[in-house]
Design brief:
alpha+beta, 42% helix, 12% strand, globular, binds zinc ion
């Protein structure tokens, strides 16, 4: 019986990256808000914001972490987690300056 070192090595490699990498792009044409690229990274529409962004981020992350789940299961779990986190007050903090104030101050 041989050792199956491949999958173990892959798991160790995955564990090194603590966060799932996210690529931001304009996805309108694909009629999708996001994609999971294999188990490597997720791609999200840069125009997503608010609660919908949280839902799609969770949805694509679930595809990466639990690839055996069906689309329906991923949808149900991501929606439930989104509602739960949102109700508990989780929001994205935007710390960018966004440009000068009307009086020229930063
Ligand atoms: Zn999906």
């Amino acid at each position: 019986m041989g050792w199956k070192i491949g999958p173990i090595w892959q798991c160790l490699n995955m564990a090194k990256k603590r966060a799932i990498p996210v690529k931001w792009s304009k996805l309108g044409r694909e009629k999708s808000h996001g994609f999971a690229h294999g188990r490597d990274f997720i791609e999200l529409d840069q125009r997503l914001h608010g609660k919908k962004l949280l839902e799609i981020l969770l949805h694509e992350s679930l595809h990466i972490e639990l690839p055996h789940l069906t689309e329906g299961q991923v949808e149900r779990v991501s929606i439930r987690l989104t509602h739960t986190l949102w109700r508990q007050g989780f929001r994205r903090v935007d710390n960018t300056q966004g440009g000068r104030m009307q009086d020229g101050s930063v």
